[in-house]
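Sequence in, structure out. Go.
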Amino acid sequence: MTRLTRSMLDRLPAAASGPIGRPLREVGSGVGIVHFGPGAFHRAHQAAYIDTVLQHDPRWGIAAVSMRSRGTVEALEQQDGLYTLAIRDAEPAMRVIGAHRRFLAPDAAAETHALLADPAVTLVTTTVTEKGYCLAGDGTLDLGHTDIVHDLAGAAVPRSVIGWIVAGLAARREAGLRPFVPMPCDNLASNGAKLHAALVAFARVGDAGLADWIAGEVRVPSTMVDSITPASDEALYAAVAATIGLEDRAAVQRERFAQWVIEDVGVPLGPDLVGAGATLTGDVAGYEKAKLRILNGAHSTLAYLGLLRGHASVAEAMADAALAGFVDAMIRRDIVPMLPAVAGLDLDAYRRAVLARFRNTAIVHRLDQIATDGSQKLPYRLGDTLAAHRADGRMPAHVVAALGGWVAFLIVRAQAGVAIADPAGAQLAAAARDADPATVVARLAEAGLGLPPQVAGDPPLLAAIAAAATAAHARRWDALLTGNDS
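Output:
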């Protein structure tokens, strides 16, 4: 079958036309945005917004930079940057996206350096996952991280996104240019503030003047991004080919709902993202907390408990009445009461919308895809709610049970010899192997893996998580999934 390229745009059927029609055939090569980490979420989310911007302002093409592998950028390059976004919902749709202009593999370091120094580039975005920012458990830059050590040694080709961004900012400063705006788009609490602090800390090791310049001149907005984006698979590729009549090996899929909340830091971002549907606000933290704790906290809970109960996808787990009721009760009883009011956001309506999105059977969002990097994600998704309750002397039973489910998941994987997909996977496996749940919880708390640091000094909480882990490991669901009344 013929591959999707710009020369094939006239062959696209009406079914593949999005709300703004097909991508522009003649787009030029202008790049205004450099993006690190062009995985499925970026292509399904931020690139779709930029594709809308490009319909009336062609300056903001994206240069996609992959720091680890060639696969995605090669697929994009072979298709002239085009790919299909499949909307999986009650009213499905397909839209061909044409937002990418340059495709930089790990060996294209010179071109990446040149783009970061180019004054036409005003925005540098990132989707590198939480672990990609090389942060320590307290959210500050981990100067002992192997990639950071490598980059601080003066390597010409950085391994970390921190090293790349600082290198670009250093080139701007040396040339007397205004800095670009770095903008993280990963699910990391206060991601803008943490990235800014990490950039300053990295620069300060070798150049105090550069560090001061970054601290004073560079603005890094925090963001909150949201759209359920299952991994691409052969079924998606086949469905796309059947609809558009062309082969597309870069296709992505997501639900119809998409949200991009951006902090107003007082400097122009460049592209008109608000006009494309993004929200510019002074209270990203409120949106962020609601999303991280309600949606992401529920997602992780469904993943670990759902896998233990034999489920494979989010929709399948939500069809499990006991588990769905437990998650709903956790949001209502444990999570929402500890969230601040957010102007323009109805938290109960948001809860209902999230649960409805989880029940979307058109989305096959695999639980094993969600159940990764728990040691990095859970401190924000569940740990913050837990800490807030304990500060007020309360024991949030549902959150405790969810964390116990994660511990049981680790024990099952470790004892079966199955690799744990987590940057601390080896440590987690060592802690969970050949030990009873109470011992595993104590080990995790002492090591600060996935649990708030204060857990180790809170014996009642340790005991409660251990009891939940024991119940989950023994499949005593009546003891674990309790209190689900409305």
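Check: The radius of gyration is 23 Å. The chain is about 45% helix and 10% strand.
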